[in-house]
Amino acid sequence: MVRSRRTKIRRLHASVEEDLRSPMEEAPGTESPWNRPRRQRICMRVDVEVLDWFKSKGPGYQTRINRVLRRVMEEGKKRRERKQ
Fold this sequence. Notes:
Radius of gyration: 16 Å
Shape: elongated
Number of helices: 3
Largest sheet: none
Helix content: 55-70%
Oligomer: single chain
Strand content: under 5%
Number of strands: 0
Structural class: mainly alpha
């Protein structure tokens, strides 16, 4: 049991390190852990390859998907503001 727990912790740690080096990382200071927006549970269909890729990065794939979608949303808002 101890070995299994250590393995899970190592995998989680490796996933966190990978996420920090990832291009999906949020810009520093953009979101405080205490000031996060509310979340809503949804059902969404995505390509199998896309989901497999996110899952291959380890635990937290849904958070990573949300992070990517948030960055796309913020970039869209910036572009819209520049046009006005």
